[in-house]
Amino acid sequence: MLESRGRALRGVEEVASEKRSKYTTISIPITLYERVSRLIENTGFTSVSQFVTYVLREIVAAYETSEEDMDLPEESKRQIIEKLRRLGYL
Q1: How many domains is the chain partitioned into structurally?
Q2: What is the per-residue DSSP string for 41-85?
Q3: 51 touches 40 (CB < 8 A)
């Protein structure tokens, strides 16, 4: 029983190790790191890496969304622009 539990624990450790290895290191200027570090004080972010990951996810998601919008057919884009113009937004 202890032996099978030991194997299970080793399996969990291997999975945890594999998850840790799915990260990379990105270099940023020290001055930027220090600015971000001060910025996240007293927030829910526990590290600069956590904050930078959050910001990058948001930017990538926004970029991907705008890329999807670009896939609209030209006629649809024209109709949207015309509706916005009629509503006074353009």
Answers
A1: 1
A2: TTSS--SHHHHHHHHHHHHHHHHHHHHHHTTS-HHHHHHHHHHHH
A3: yes
Dihedral sign from CA coordinates of 70, 73, 78, 83 = negative
CB 53 within 8 A of CB 61: no
**pTM above 0.70?**
no
> Measured between alpha carbons, how far apart are the two ends of the chain, in Å?
72
Domain range enclosing 68: 2-86
Contact 37, 48 (CB under 8 A): yes
Identify the three-state secondary structure at position 89.
Answer: coil
* CA–CA distances in Å: residue 49 to residues 5, 20, 56, 77: 34, 14, 10, 39
The 10s digit of each residue's pLDDT in 4-45 is 545 555 555 555 555 666 888 989 999 999 999 999 999 999
